[in-house]
Amino acid sequence: MSTQIDRLTELAKEDPKRQFYSIAHMITPEALYAAFRGLRKKASAGVDGVTYEMYEKDTARNIRTLHERLKNGKYQAQPMRRVYIPKENGKQRPLSIPALEDKIVQKAMVEILNAIYEQDFLDCSYGFRPGRGQHQALDEVRRVICTRPTGWILELDITAYFDSIVRKQLMELIEKRVRDGSVLRLIRKCIQVGVIEEGRLLVSETGTGQGQTISPLLANIYLHYVLDEWFENEVKPRLRGEAHEIRFADDAVLCFQYKEDAERVLEVLPKRFGKYGLTLHPEKTRLVEFGRYAEVNAKRRGNKPSTLDFLGFTHIWVRQLKLAHPSC
Which pTM was predicted? Predict the structure, then answer.
């Protein structure tokens, strides 16, 4: 399996436009077993009530029959179980829990798809990627603000991002790289399942089913095309000054040297996102002056310097950048 993954990685890196027509065969019993061993043992059960411990009692037979269903096209993803967890603000966050076998299948698929898409994803993307995380994203924000001519920052907040992804457009974007019909059908089965809430089956027309193992990867693929590539290849060459993007899943900041560049991007972003069913949150999306001249300019106007919120940290520029890192 590792040899096949390595070869897949090489091919994807070698040709960014290569399309893959035959990768389903890589979902082997060995790949499914490895995916099962990679699951959290104490995770909550899905609608079928099957836990890791129960499945483990006869792993070999369970994996073998699962593989047969996949091979014969008889595998069906099950609806997810909806639960709610409390948030700090007193509200509740919905969480959808997949059945254990769906987690196994999705984890095996993610391993294969990552070999392709890790060659495509840009350096500005940090969320839910191997070897990357929040700390690296925060470090990059600090680096850009401290070492590049940054004066203005656009904070992006997408309203209900995971629930708003247009599935038809998502699949069209995936098909730029993956043309294996079996894999595409599996992905569709995953994203089209509904949720069971209070005994009722609820099915939506959009979204990737937040809570599923494959959902973060699909969400990254969507924003890779909708935002990252567009900003890098179409927007930045048209700007007067420098610009940088730092994104963690659907949480992103765009850093600009000049205010007029930031305002131009803010003007076109709603139309760009609207084309793909996405909406910027009107209150949480904001343009702030932030950088080495922000404090001086704010004092000149008799105001306090603006703060920057990203990944749960409030960044404050006074004479040096206050972060959970060494100062500039």
Answer: 0.92
